[in-house]
Structure formats: C-alpha cells, structure tokens
Specification:
Layout lengths: L2 H17 L5 H14 L4 H7 L3 H18 L10 H16 L5 H12 L7 H11 L8 H16 L19
Helix pairs in contact: 1-2, 1-5, 2-3, 2-4, 3-4, 5-6, 5-8, 6-7, 7-8
Amino acid sequence: MTSTEAAAIALQDCAALWSAGEIRASEVVDAACDALVAGLDSPGLRVLAARTRAEADYDVHDLLPTALDELGLVFHPLASGTGQEAAARALARRMLAGRLTPREFTFWIHQRFGHELPLTERLAELDDEYDILEYGDRAVSQVDVEVMAEAHRLAAHPTVAAEPTGTPGGDRGE
C-alpha cells in the first residue's frame, strides 16, 4: 500500500469515527494535514487542513463532505447504518495497529452496537466471553486470537457504500 493509499484510508477512518461521535473534529483536521503531507491533494482538503483546533469543531461538518468527495472517498452521514459499519472497521484497523487492546475494541463495539449490528455480532459475543473468563476454561489469549481474526475480517474492507443522502459524496459507492 502506498503512503497516499494509507493516508486516504486514515482520513476515511477519521471521518467515519468523527461521524459516529468517537473522535474530535481536530483529529479529522490532523488527518487532513497528514493526507496532504502524504501526497493527497484537493482544494477542499487544503481548506480542511488549514483549520485550527478551535475552528475544527465549527467547520469540519461543512468542509469534510466536500474534501472527501473531491478525493473519491465516502462521507457517511451522522448515525447512518453504513457509518456505523465504517466506524467499526476503522476501530478494527486501530486495534490492529496497536492503538487499542482486543478487550478495549470488543468493549467499544458492544457498548456502541450491542448485539444489533450484524457486522459486529461476533465481537459483541466475544466481549461477553471476556466477562465470563474467570468462570470457564478459556484464557484471555484465546479470546484475543478470535478478536484479532474478527478485526482482520473487518479491516479487509476499508470502505462501505454510502447511503444516498443528497449530501456531497453521500451517493458515491466504493
């Protein structure tokens, strides 16, 4: 994977996590800066990357859809089903990169989606298994291995098709 591909995935992941309410707008601006440094470029990306931390909370909502659209990336509307799946995939990539433990990852998934999101159902079940380890014959490492396998499955698909919304980039499928 080239650095521009990695930067595009990182920007897409930040956008999904921001839309899901999991990260601050300033992290999206940081990802836009990283994308520029990696070689991605568009007018909207430059404007987004130029926001200060103070401006980010006010401006990202308006600037992000355009920047993503110009780069051929998908903006997932706030609280959309595809946005939830994109956020889960983004968290899987963060866990695989060592930014979360397997336990933290399953806890986040379970707290956020319960057993309702088919894409992450197995992860919610594995979170339940962590809770009962002391009563069974499985070790934490065994559950961790299963969580890692699920994370690899999720991370294998960097984007999901957006739901039609009429917003810029909202009708682009990947």
